[in-house]
Amino acid sequence: MEGGWTNPLRLEILIEGDRIAAIAPELKAEGAEVIDLSGLLITPGLVDGHSHMWSAIARGLGDDSAETMDALAEVWTPEASALSVELAAALAVNSGITWVNNWADNVVSPEHADAEVGAMRDSGLGGRFNYGYPHAGSHDKPMDLDDLRDTVSTWEHGPVGLGVALRGPDSSTPEVLQEEISKARGYGLPVSFHMGGSQGAAELHNVQAMSEQGMLGADVQVVHVTSAPAEDLARLAEAGSPLIVAPTTEAAMDFGAPDIGAMREAGLNMGVGVGTTGPEGAADMFTVMRLVAEAADETMGEEAINGATVFDWATRAGALAVQAPDGVGTLVKGGPADLIAISTEGLDETGKLPPDIELTRKAGPDNVRFVMIGGEIHKADGELTKVDLDALTNEAAEMMNELQEKLGG
């Protein structure tokens, strides 16, 4: 998996600490614990390129969910942020995700930010906390990124990195965006924002304006652009700005399906993301991969894109797109010990489907039997080992009731 998809081989993997020490058909390691995953497909952990972890406890809000979330965001507490991230992390692990790009777009206070970071670190997931803005904040007022300076200087380097979540050109003024990107770059941090999700937003031609003003680049990650014309995609690719698509969220928001054919033709560095866990409460990267594959079918023809490419976007290529640490999304000697084991039993009644198609078009979270992150086992025999998901779900429901009571029911 160092250079992308490789057809399955029978291999043994030696883990020492949080790294992969060796990979070979047969290994000898005196005194090592043996974990037998025979009959399962072992792959790198999945890489979620865009996730709103702070809102995971919000479920069953109905058709007015966007308006309700806008209101709830104003009464959101640091405790709610911590619980949401804890729940989102558990759902991610259950789905085989081992690295998450957490887009924190409801940082009401430094305490809210600390709560999310603490929950991410406690979860054991790898990822990045993208320091964001109050969900209900003004579009013409710059984010208080001066507060971020102290965060950068005292940041504890480890599995969780730091970035910045911006409102982007569709939801802030050019002057505000220029100031925010400049400050983030001054701190050496990557930025991420939504863009071009609707036809109206695409018609603003913000990609062109940002390109001309030097506001694009490998450190500027763009999410959605489902309605962007080909010339905008070409500008993003030329500047090296990666693109993350989140088809489950894009469908829920009526953004339309991503034009995978045009995105590939433009030569974009791509990744995929869950976006929001949604009313069903699942961080399901397998559904994300299936929707991406089906979107490619629509614009490129049936199976014009193979499952290996889609799976690469959910692992190695996706990690490169969001500038994750070296080795994330791969299984290589010296790389992080982030791996999952997937059962393909019952996925192919014909016995003719190749493994990449089984993984990207047939599998789901229930097929993930084993998850290791940083050398620690987080799921074994199909069951989470570090958290009680049912208890977390109940706690989340209670927290949502408390928040809704603050709004008067």
From TrEMBL:
Protein name: Cytosine/adenosine deaminase
Species assigned in the record: Salipiger thiooxidans
PANTHER family: AMIDOHYDROLASE-RELATED DOMAIN-CONTAINING PROTEIN, AMINOHYDROLASE SSNA-RELATED
Gene3D superfamilies found in the cross-reference section: Metal-dependent hydrolases, Urease, subunit C, domain 1
Family the UniProt entry places it in: Belongs to the metallo-dependent hydrolases superfamily. ATZ/TRZ family.
Domain of life, source organism: Bacteria
Sorted UniProt keywords: Hydrolase
Domain annotation Amidohydrolase-related: ranges: 42-377
